[in-house]
Structures are given as structure tokens and as C-alpha cells.
Amino acid sequence: GQLVESGGGVVQPGGSLRLSCTTSGFTFSSYAMSWYRQAPGKERELVAVIRSAGSRTNYADAVKGRFTISRDNAENTVYLQMNSLKPEDTAVYYCYAKFGPNDYWGQGTQVTVSS
Q: Does residue 94 carry a pLDDT above 80?
């Protein structure tokens, strides 16, 4: 399977970005999809996850109320809408797909929040 993230960039504090992760090579609708991030010198952390069935979502406490994960099974794409961005949101954001023993990672997209 392949995952390709896009939508990263440089934004001022308080701004918004929408990340996209376009996938291929596996049955997207069966997979739980997640966004992770990794800041310099820190471990990779889970940001948000959306389940395959029913699209139930969960978020890290640090992003609750500001970020929204969604998926379009017809387009094999998962999104991360990020609002009210803070400097501490600066990181490389990775898309992750998991179903049973199978999982795939994207290559990451850089998000920088700076004035």
C-alpha cells in the first residue's frame, strides 16, 4: 500500500491548514486511518484516528477542539483539518493505515507554525 500526504506548509499562529492523505494498493474502507506527528527531538505521537466502520474518531488531548479527522472512502483519502494552530503544533505529520496485521506509513509532510 501507498500513502501520500500533502497540504503541509508554513502558517502563522491562529491559522489553519488541511492535510490530505491519498492512498492506494489496499482496501481503504477496511482500514483504521490515523495521523501522527513528530517534532524535532521528540517521539512520534498519535494525533487523531478514525475507525473504518462508523467513522468513530479519537483525538490527542493537545488537539481536541482544534483538529478534525475525516475520511472519504470513495476517494480513498483521509483528511486532517487543523484550526487555531499553535507553534507547538510544528512537526512532521504522518498518515498511518492499519487493519489487522497490516499497516502502512506515509512519508510525512512538514507543518511549521511560526510568526
A: yes
